[in-house]
Amino acid sequence: MLRENRTNTPRKGVSRTARAGGSSAHGSERHIVTALCYDLVGSTDLLHVMDIEDYQDLMSAFQRSSRQSIAAHSGVMQHEAGDGGVALFPIDLDAKDAASLAIRAGLDIVDACKRVGREWGRDDLRVRVGIATSAALIRDMERESWLQEPVTGAALAMAARLQVIAEPNSVLVSEETRNLAGRSHAFVFQGSKPLKGFSTPEKVWRALGHKMEVDRFHAYGRLGGPFINRESELNTIARTWDGVLAGRGASLLIEGDAGIGKSRLLREIRRRTRDRRSKLFFFQCLPGGLRSTLHPLLHSFPGSTTRNGQMGVTASDVATLFERNGIEDKEAIEVFAYLLGAEGRNQLLANDNPKAIREKAHRALLRTLEAVSRSGPVVVAVEDIHWIDPTSRDLLGEAARLIGQFPIFLILTSRRGAPVEWLDTATPLRLSLRPLDSDETRLAIRAKWPEHRLARLPELFEVAERISGGVPLFIEEICQWASQSAEADEASLSETMKPVHLSAFESILDARLQHLGPAREVARAAAAAGTQVTLPLLRVLLPDFSKKAIASAADMLCETGFLTRVRAPGSIAYGFRHVLIQETIYNALLRKQRQVLHRRLFGAVNQNRGMAAWIDTGALAEHAERAGLIENAVELLIAAGKESSSRSAMIEARQYLEHALALCSELGEESAVETLQLAALTALGPILTGLVGLNSPPARKLYEDGVEIARRQPMEEQSKWFPIYWGWWFTGSDFRIMHDRALEVQSMLAKVDDPEIQLQVNHCIWAIDFNLGRHRETQEAIKAGLALYDERTARKSRTEFGGHDAKVCGLGQMALSLWLTGQTKASDAALSRMIAFVDRIAHAPSKAHSLDTEAVSAFYRDDFDRLIEVSARMADFARKHDMQSLSGLSQLFRGWAEAHRGNLASGHSVFREGLSLLRTLGAVADLPIYLYMHATLVGLAGRLGDAIDIVNEAIQKAEETGHAYWLAELHRCRTVLGAQAGVPRDALAADLRSAVEIAESQGATTLVRRARRSMQELGLVAGR
Fold it and tell me: What is the pTM of this model?
């Protein structure tokens, strides 16, 4: 036994560390408690109709029989009032036993009430009983005294509430109680009932009686030792492997609940393929990895190499690992090094746009699969894909799609219910692991049960089956615990167990850990650290433990199956044998215990990131939050969001930054909080406008909130928050409002001597003036602004101002304005410069902006083939980056083009879907143009009246919002539709004159020519 003190008593070692770790509630521990509350119905009415002495004797008889019912089922009265009482059922019972005994006691109280009523000739003597189960904090854990100590939990209050709503002579139980006793009693569901003092309705069940036989117990789990109930799966796997050996690659998805045996089956596959495979690759997705780009690959490097105190790898590390596995393709290595953010990576790849990077990654993946399989069949395993990050998910989905070309067996595991539709196109073979039944559970227990205890198996089997639920992993832990119990004659698996699978497992683990002395506290500290921990980090978490004691405890935890050693350069690292073990131990900690451990970890790692190189910025933010260090957590979340945004990982960036803003609400209202809020809003705004839409309500509200905060800051700091003001202008609800806001921003910052700010002021002006139809002013602002453009500064600015690069926007706006003013060749040249430049800078939101510009340009020119091609690229890019507004635009433009290429009905349907999505998102800044397109398609379908109504709405919207640059075309569109509908010629001529006048006032010579051509075609005036 490992000793932390001079005593051999494990309990003293535990309590000492608990105090050092800041245990809350003065040594209280969590346990599951079942409470019973009973009360006579109408006892006050009885008092009025009975002699007072007879009433007292009747109450005494009822209470005596009630106490007897409770005592007969191991319950203990906690409180008794004249016509009712409260009882608790001992924590030294299995929680399922306690719940079952409480229900038996409740039913006995009902029977006893009836019996007493008959004896006294009172058929109106009736009782209500409520029973509930919950986690509770109990101070004194000794059997003799725990009921005299304060018990804090919801069970007592809920039992009282259930008793109040119960029908006379019935027993109502909570959902948790029913779950525990579901095998031993029959119930009738009574619905979900609102209970006073509880925020959500509780599912309520009426207990009917005890079952004579126990139902089959289904389970899920992992089993060390022989396989049971896996023959079908193993046969399927064997056939699939034979196909791989014959050159037909295959992918297999193994699904099941936590602990059901996915990892065990995966290890068996690895064992059975060992002799005939050339290579094995194993990748592990980790909890919290959803926002950590390529974390399964990153963590496959030995120890997640540390550079300058940060987690990461070098380009040399990537090359070494790849070449060691037969991958010598330099381009493939460079792409993966870039995606990993490796130090020394090829920076030229940063000039590629995200679509190009994705295409290169897919090509690199193809060549990598080809390289690793040259020497023979390969097994690639990726475990726990329910925790996979978006980038890894994309590459894994592509690998699954390609795998049939190579002799590769791709095996994936996932928890049941996790979204895996991204694998549908690859059509993997799916295995859903089924639970063990009672007979199979018996075989599993026999396979693992200690040899010297087999004689006791018959009397312990039912308890073991009930506690484990037949879960293979739980069975394994129960059997290990039984084999390590000190006294054979006291080996009872019913001690200290808790309800439902996870709670039962929590008790199993805690019972085993209590016999390991201080190793229990080491396991708890490791669980707080996460999926990996080192000895130096454990020393930080447990400062009262010696280095030797921690090392011995870690070794003991490895020997007893809790931890495994993890390869890491320079130090010994440990990981939990199964993530369910880590989760369960962590969840059993009291909140204050967790907080102390997280605070110690954060303090150490924040000062020296090399101490835990696997903890990235986002993970460190989570530790800060759990430590209660909210301000530190917000700062780190903002940093993590910016890091993700710089890699075009916009989904992860949004998650980090929105969580940072949510945490700001916990910090009060002082100015320091507002600075953090503004920093988060500055980073999040461009991401939100790119993902959801620049005129969407969420983006608009974000900037309006930001400006409200920014205006409260000192005047000398206003320029610091210019990105917030810029976004506020950018997301104005209409162009007149945007124009006014732009002038306000320009006036506010006129004296600021900063070329970038002056560039962005011009950015405001050209965007507004274009939509107002002021082409000369637009082109002048673009020329003045781009003269100030600096690409190095732009790397930061493009993430702050509208989410897109100013030069991309300026060139695109110039291309559109030049075309409208009749300068077609100059327009084509500007458009080509925009496309080349955006592809070089590789900034996802800027690429989305340029795709929109390309589509609009093709729309102007009625180039439907080009529009089909651009809209396809838009859709692909939108899917890759989860850009909802871009997805809507792709549908809108594709539908318009298809409708004009002969597929009117289907094209119009796709168009309407896109328009509906944009309306839902609120991303309809160009609504008059969309309505113009809609009216045109409705007119082509022959519904001229509806089409004219739509174009009337478009003209009204354009005039209301100042969206003037397409107003001439709207009038021309109404003229064309009106001519087909038989509108009087005077009205048609008036509309076309308006079109000409508007276009001429704007200098839009292309639109002037269109209007005059329509005049000639309709015979309204002589052509010119």
Answer: 0.54
